[in-house]
Amino acid sequence: MTDVQTRTDADPQPERAGSTSTRRVVLLSAGALGAGAVLTACGTDTSGTNPNGTDFDSNPVPAGSTGAQADSAGGNAGTVLVAASEVAVGGGVIKGDYVITQPEEGTFKAFSKICTHQGCPVTEVNDGSILCKCHNSAFSIKDGAPTAGPAAKPLAETKVQLDGDNVVAA
Ligand code: FES
Fold first, then answer.
1. Counting atoms of ligand 1 from 1, which one is nearest the CA of 120?
2. What total of structural domains would you count in the chain?
3. Cys-Cys with 138: which of 105, 129, 146, 164 at CB 3.0–4.6 Å?
4. Boundaries of domain holding 44
5. Given the CA of residue 122, which atom of ligand 1 is nearest to it?
6. Each residue of 1-56: pLDDT tens digit?
């Protein structure tokens, strides 16, 4: 049988004397936990989930997305990603769920636009780099490798090829 202690009004209540400081300790502890949560959110942790709640380390494409990566995996090659004329040599464009680049004339690449740091979509291709403004990571337009910022893993690549005037999923 378990020993249960009960308290009566006649019992002394020693915690009352220190109740103010006890509350302070609780509040300070809660504040420290909150600060820890904020630091974690802004840290360099490269694991976690993307905004859609899926694990972007193993599934860097947003849930429900369509396009080359899903099509390549599903065997629907030939999906048009972009007109080749829209992709500048040495640059790239963000279309749908992908970043399509042309690091050298006639060589096209496509990557998931989901940043491998904490899952923000990349927002810009500039000066040979794909940029994520959430925490300022940069990725190479040649292979999607991280070149700056907290991201440690490359953007997921989708194989593409030229089909007439279009860049399509391979
Ligand atoms: S999500 Fe942090 S740099 Fe992209």
1. 1
2. 2
3. 129
4. 21-56
5. 4
6. 444 444 444 444 444 444 444 444 433 344 344 443 433 444 444 444 444 444 44
Asked if 168 contacts 80 with a C-beta cutoff of 8 angstroms, the reply is: yes
Q: Tell me: do 122 and 52 sit in the same domain.
A: no
35 and 113 part of one domain:
no
How many angstroms separate the alpha carbon of residue 90 from the centre of ligand 1? 23
Which ligand 1 atom sits closest to the C-alpha of 119?
A: 1
Q: What pLDDT, on a 0 to 100 scale, did the predictor assign at position 77?
A: 86
* d(CA 77, ligand 1 centre) in Å: 30
Record the pTM: 0.62
Distance CA 116, CA 85 (A): 28
Which residue's structure tokens are 């979509």? 121
Determine the residue type at 63: A
Q: Who's near 123: CB < 8 A, 6+ residues apart?
A: 94, 131, 132, 133
117 lies in some domain: yes
**CA–CA separation, 111 vs 117, rounded Å?**
15
Residue nearest atom 3 in ligand 1 by C-alpha distance = 135
Nearest ligand 1 atom to the CA of 132 is 4
Measuring from each residue's beta carbon to the nearest atom of ligand 1, which residues come in under 6 Å?
115, 117-120, 132, 134-135, 137, 149-151
The residue nearest atom 1 of ligand 1, judged by CA position, is: 118
Type of residue found at 12: P
**Within-domain flag for 7:** no
CATH number of the domain encompassing residue 107: 2.102.10.10
* 74 and 95 inside one domain: yes
